[in-house]
Amino acid sequence: MISHVNEYDTPECKTLAETAKKSIRTPASLGLDRCIQCGACTASCPAARFTDYSPRQIVKKVLENDRSVLESEMIWSCFYCYSCNLRCPRNNSPVTIVQVLRQMAINEGIGVEKLAYFLEIGEYLAENGASKIPGPGAKNMERDLGERWISFKKNLESIRDELGLSSKDIRNTHGEVQTILEATGYFEREKWIKAKIQEKLLHQLLENQYIKRENRSGDFGFENDRRYPGQPAFII
Ligand code: SF4
Ligand code: SF4
């Protein structure tokens, strides 16, 4: 098992379905094997409405033990609203399965760069004992929710005053949050994630340089091709 990977979260099993069912995240009542591919999960999924994402297909791939699903961008489209969990007539939970798949992908270094967005939340939590919306997320909210949300954000202090709330919502945790994060191995895991992201970015950089070089040699290849245009004549 890779260091800082929780073997209870993604136990090593023969199939994806077994791993999903044995993960500590998964309730014993999970109806993965009872899935009838009705598509109610996809029909109720907000992410599926705007993208090619399909929780039904994710479940199908898991049942077929198709490990290519770990490489798929699809598993990163879910935002844990749990509508699929609520609507499934067979007590299956595509959202839980997606969580296990993401963890498996991360363990294998696939998609680990997606975690960069969330690291800010962990850092802020450790420092202030409270959660926050990461910078890029706040920008997206400004774009999606518009003026009303921006003015709400600007006037947050006065709104809090009006509601009789303290001006600061950050609690003094007396170091308790840090203690919990330390005891649960969060900081070690954070270090591991950062190193993996660096490794991946470096790999991508080298790959891009290699592709550029390939393209250049491709130009020479084109020159060569021009000396032999078309198929040789067919001689009877
Ligand atoms: S709603 Fe449930 S049974 Fe229907 S396809 Fe989705 S997971 Fe399967
Ligand atoms: S939890 Fe994920 S898969 Fe389920 S409905 Fe919401 S976005 Fe879709």
UniProtKB/TrEMBL annotation:
<dbReference type="InterPro" id="IPR009051">
    <property type="entry name" value="Helical_ferredxn"/>
</dbReference>
<dbReference type="GO" id="GO:0005886">
    <property type="term" value="C:plasma membrane"/>
</dbReference>
<dbReference type="GO" id="GO:0051539">
    <property type="term" value="F:4 iron, 4 sulfur cluster binding"/>
</dbReference>
<dbReference type="InterPro" id="IPR017900">
    <property type="entry name" value="4Fe4S_Fe_S_CS"/>
</dbReference>
<keyword id="KW-0411">Iron-sulfur</keyword>
<dbReference type="Pfam" id="PF13183">
    <property type="entry name" value="Fer4_8"/>
</dbReference>
<dbReference type="GO" id="GO:0046872">
    <property type="term" value="F:metal ion binding"/>
</dbReference>
<dbReference type="GO" id="GO:0051912">
    <property type="term" value="F:CoB--CoM heterodisulfide reductase activity"/>
</dbReference>
<comment type="similarity">
    <text>Belongs to the HdrC family.</text>
</comment>
<keyword id="KW-0408">Iron</keyword>
<protein>
    <submittedName>
        <fullName>CoB--CoM heterodisulfide reductase subunit C</fullName>
        <ecNumber>1.8.98.1</ecNumber>
    </submittedName>
</protein>
<keyword id="KW-0479">Metal-binding</keyword>
<dbReference type="InterPro" id="IPR051460">
    <property type="entry name" value="HdrC_iron-sulfur_subunit"/>
</dbReference>
<feature type="domain" description="4Fe-4S ferredoxin-type">
    <location>
        <begin position="26"/>
        <end position="56"/>
    </location>
</feature>
<keyword id="KW-0004">4Fe-4S</keyword>
<dbReference type="InterPro" id="IPR053646">
    <property type="entry name" value="HdrC_heterodisulfide_reductase"/>
</dbReference>
<dbReference type="InterPro" id="IPR017896">
    <property type="entry name" value="4Fe4S_Fe-S-bd"/>
</dbReference>
<keyword id="KW-0560">Oxidoreductase</keyword>
